[in-house]
DNA sequence: CGGTATCCCCCGCGATACTG
DNA sequence: CAGTATCGCGGGGGATACCG
């Protein structure tokens, strides 16, 4: 948070934005989380005290407004107009990341995070008007996250939740998948059909539910970002494309 | 540079971009600096060893390419295609900064940086085809930068330089200005005419040169960014606007 | 649940000196 | 000029315990 000693608008903005964890906290706020614990679920590796500190800094900078919670205890955190305008920066940063980073190293795979993201963007309107429970069984989960291997997504008309313990309700659908493949799917790097065909993802449930599932799932906001143009595949490809 | 442990493209990009000093180093590279010392002039408060380290990190991340310098010793640093695409991020960040930060605190005023920026964006085509020397005398310079109070801008058809010592040539124009006002002018927060009118900036030279000077000077790339709409002045203004 | 407070360690970074 | 190497410190941040 110390100054860069420059009047340049890039420098002044970077003093706020380019602090460790801050872009992720902003991403969470921009995605619609307002409660401390929800923010923390989206950025689980930040320590709670540091999250507090970052929220205070953002408040001091006029990015975040802290309000007493309407219901229950604690506070709620809202972006100000200035904070909301970081959306363009976060989006551009994410677009860059989608185009130029390798995102499927084992160290970055996190089933909790994936499900937390998924539940945020579900097409709730397409669900039947009753409780739907989906169990996920992931293969290829990094050790740190391998608590039990099963996760539940509970979708009710007015509430969604991710559980790491069996909520006890009847399961409508079991999704068995390689975590890397599921993450690629989410990020638009793998198609649903080819994942099913190659056995990377398998669905187990009524035909109706299995067919509906792909329509329930929205993909990451960055799934549709163009990938960089291939470095022109030298000779073979060009030749191959030529009429013979 | 440690991982955030998230597959999210925002997180992966932030691991690279949201490191201390990195946005400023990228800004310099994007502005067309390639030599180590030029980069350092644009980010003078970073230590040379840390600048080296950041450039290495950017190289490892595939953002920067290091080449043996064509002339003279040392290396030159060029952005790769991936690096060039950070332009959109840096621009959005700067636009945010232009709209929402206070940039004229004394701690941020820096005459060297201001002149370094100015020389970078001069309208060289509008200069007469000979050497032109401009002397700047700034008032209100923070202590740390108050080396002598005078700076020279030397413009030759094929070379521009900023000096802190008298280069010895005849001076064509003397610009006397309050440093804060000059910075505001550069950032589009103050008009040339009103600055002259109010005595914040004074020109001393031939009539021809004085009239040409404003056309030589380009402004910051962010000077034309819209300022945020005023928070609607509550009651008085509304009432005032009503037909009576 | 929604944080605070405290301790303490590590390493990011500045300072300085050195090199080709 | 364009860096590299080394040292030492300060504080950023993790771990843990505590509170309303």
Protein model, in words:
Chain A has two domains: about 10-100, Arc Repressor Mutant, subunit A; about 105-215, SCP2 sterol-binding domain (Nonspecific Lipid-transfer Protein, Chain A, 2-Layer Sandwich). The first copy, chain A, is about 40% helix and about 15% strand. The longest helix of chain A has 14 residues, at about 85-100. In chain A, strands 5-4-3-6-7 form a five-stranded mixed beta sheet. In chain A, strands 1-2 form a two-stranded antiparallel sheet. Chain A is built from eleven helices and seven strands. Chain A is an alpha+beta fold and about 240 residues long. At the A-B interface, helix 1, helix 2, helix 6 and helix 7 of A face helix 1, helix 2, helix 6 and helix 7 of B. The structure holds a DNA duplex (20 and 20 nucleotides).
Task: Describe the structure using short key phrases.
homodimer; 244 residues; alpha+beta; Arc Repressor Mutant, subunit A; Nonspecific Lipid-transfer Protein, Chain A; 2 domains; 5-stranded mixed beta sheet; two-stranded antiparallel ribbon; 11 helices; disordered C terminus; DNA-binding
A few lines on this structure:
Chain A is α+β, with helices and mostly antiparallel strands.
Output the helix-strand order of chain A. HHHHEEHHHEEEEHHEHH
Mean pLDDT of chain A: 91
Low-pLDDT parts of chain A are 233-244
3D shape of chain A:
globular
Oligomeric status: homodimer
Q: List the total number of helices of chain A.
A: 11
């Amino acid at each position: 948070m110390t100054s860069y000693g420059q009047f340049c608008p890039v420098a002044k903005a970077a003093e706020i934005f380019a602090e460790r964890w801050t872009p992720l906290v902003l991403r969470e706020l921009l995605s619609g989380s307002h409660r401390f614990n929800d923010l923390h679920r989206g950025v689980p590796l930040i320590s709670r005290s540091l999250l507090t500190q970052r929220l205070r800094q953002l408040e001091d900078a006029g990015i975040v407004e802290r309000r007493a919670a309407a219901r229950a205890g604690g506070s709620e955190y809202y972006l100000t107009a200035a904070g909301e305008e970081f959306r363009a920066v976060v989006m551009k940063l994410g677009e860059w990341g989608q185009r130029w980073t390798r995102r499927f190293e084992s160290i970055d795979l996190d089933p909790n995070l994936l499900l937390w993201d998924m539940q945020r963007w579900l097409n709730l309107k397409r669900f039947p008007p009753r409780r739907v429970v989906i169990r996920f069984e992931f293969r290829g989960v990094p050790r740190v996250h391998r608590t039990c291997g099963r996760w539940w997504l509970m979708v009710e008309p007015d509430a969604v939740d991710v559980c790491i313990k069996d909520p006890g309700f009847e399961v409508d659908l079991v999704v068995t998948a390689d975590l890397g493949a599921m993450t690629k799917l989410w990020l638009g790097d793998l198609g649903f059909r080819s994942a099913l065909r190659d056995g990377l993802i398998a669905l187990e449930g009524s035909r109706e539910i299995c067919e509906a599932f792909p329509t329930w799932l929205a993909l990451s906001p960055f799934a549709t970002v163009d990938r960089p143009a291939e470095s022109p595949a030298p000779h073979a490809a060009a030749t191959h494309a030529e009429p013979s």
